User: Which sequence fits this backbone?
C-alpha cells in the first residue's frame, strides 16, 4: 500500500517509526517525520505534541477505558473486571500489529523512550492499585495486598505481551488467561476464576490442616482463608 | 549543626534539597546549589553529573549490593536472600532519615524526578526478576512466576517504605517482614519462611482436596503444590 493512501495519522506513525529505526530516534526531527509522511509540520503538531508522542499514541484513551471497565466491576466479579481490563491492553497491542513490535524495538534501544514506557506502565499499575485498594479496604492488610496484586497483574500482562512482541507465542490470549489465573490467585473476590488459596504455617500438622480445610470448604463452594 | 562543619557531599545534598523545596526543582541551578553549599561548581561536578544526580545518590552502589546478596543466596534459602536484599533498600532509606523524606516530597511533586525514581524502581525489579527467573527456570511457568514474584516483592517493599516516608508507621522493620511473607508466599523455595500455599480448583470436592493434601504434606515438612 503506498504511503499516500493511508490516513494522515497512520502515515505519520509509520513515517516516524521508519525514520527512528533507520536513522535513530535522536537524529530524527519532527520536520523529517512530516516531510517523510508528506504532510506539513503544522499537521504533525495538530496531532502530537512531540516526537515522543508519536511512539505512544492512544495511551491516555486506553487508560480511560481501563478506568471505565474497573468502575463497572460487579460484586464478586471484580477479579474478572481486573482480568478484562488488563486484557484490553493486550488486545490493543495485538490490534496494532507491526507498529507495536516496532515500538518494542525502539523502547528497548532508546533510553528516553524506555523511561516513558516505564512511566506509562506505572500509570496502569497505579490505576489497578487504586481500585483494588478501594475494594480490599476492609480486609486485613488490604492496602498491601492490593498493591501486590496490582503489581502481579501488570507483571503477568507484561510477560505475555513481551512474548507476543518477541514472536515467542502464537496463542497470547490463552497464555494471558493462564497468567491472570496465577496473578489473581491471591484475590479473595476472584472466586469466579475457580481457585482457592490456602496458606498454613509449615509447623501445622497435616491432620490439623485437613480439619481446618474441611471446616472451610465444608458448606461447598470456594473460600479464601488468606 | 552549621552547614560548614558537614562533609562536602552532605553539604551539597542538603543545599540542593533546601533550594529544590524552597525555589522549585526547575528554577534551581547547579551554580545555586554550589554557592549555597559554599563550594565551587567544579566541586559539584566532581561528585555529580547533574542536579538530578544529587537527588538519587548511592542508587548504583545499592543496586550492586543487592546483586551481590542475591548472587550469594544458598539453596533453600533463596526466599531469605530476596527478603534480605529488599530489606537493604528499606534500611538504606531509613538510614538516610530526613533526606529520604525530602526526596519523597520532591519526587511526588516534580514529574522529571518522579520518572527517574520509577526508572530506578524498575532497575531493582529487573534485578530481582533476573535471579528469580534463573532459580525457577525448571519450574512450570517459571519465568512468568518469577516476574510476578519480583513485582510482588518490589510492591511490598514500596508499600512499607512509603508508609515510613509518610510517617504512617513506627515499626517499618516488622511491617516489612510481614509484607515479605505475603509477597513471597507463592515462592516454592521460601520454605524457610514458614508457609505452604495450596491452590485447588473450586470444583474439587472437599474429600479430594483432603486426600491430595494428605499425600502432599504426608512425609512432613512444607511443600508447594502450585
Assistant:
Amino acid at each position: 500500500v503506498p504511503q499516500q493512501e493511508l490516513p494522515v495519522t497512520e502515515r505519520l506513525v509509520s513515517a516516524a517509526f521508519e525514520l527512528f529505526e533507520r536513522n535513530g530516534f535522536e537524529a530524527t526531527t519532527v520536520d523529517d517525520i512530516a516531510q517523510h509522511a508528506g504532510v506539513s509540520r503544522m499537521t504533525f503538531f495538530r496531532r502530537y505534541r512531540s516526537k515522543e508522542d508519536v511512539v505512544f499514541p492512544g495511551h491516555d484513551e486506553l487508560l480511560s477505558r481501563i478506568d471505565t471497565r474497573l468502575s463497572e466491576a460487579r460484586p464478586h466479579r471484580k477479579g474478572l473486571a481486573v482480568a478484562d481490563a488488563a486484557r484490553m491492553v493486550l488486545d490493543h497491542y495485538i490490534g496494532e500489529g507491526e507498529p507495536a513490535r516496532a515500538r518494542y524495538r525502539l523502547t528497548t534501544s532508546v533510553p528516553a523512550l524506555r523511561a516513558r514506557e516505564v512511566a506509562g506502565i506505572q500509570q496502569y499499575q497505579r490505576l489497578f492499585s487504586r481500585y483494588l485498594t478501594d475494594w480490599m479496604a476492609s480486609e486485613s492488610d488490604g492496602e498491601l495486598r492490593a498493591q501486590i496484586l496490582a503489581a502481579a497483574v501488570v507483571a503477568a500482562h507484561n510477560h505475555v505481551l513481551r512474548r507476543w512482541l518477541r514472536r515467542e507465542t502464537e496463542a497470547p490470549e490463552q497464555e494471558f488467561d493462564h497468567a491472570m489465573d496465577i496473578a489473581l490467585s491471591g484475590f479473595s473476590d476472584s472466586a469466579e476464576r475457580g481457585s482457592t488459596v490456602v496458606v498454613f504455617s509449615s509447623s501445622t500438622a497435616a491432620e490439623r490442616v485437613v480439619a481446618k480445610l474441611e471446616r472451610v470448604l465444608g458448606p461447598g463452594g470456594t473460600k479464601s482463608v488468606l
Observations:
- The longest strand of chain B covers residues 195-201.
- The CA atoms of residues 111 and 179 of chain B lie 28 Å apart.
- The radius of gyration of chain B is 22 Å.
- Confidence is low (pLDDT under 50) at residues 190-196, 218-226 of chain B.
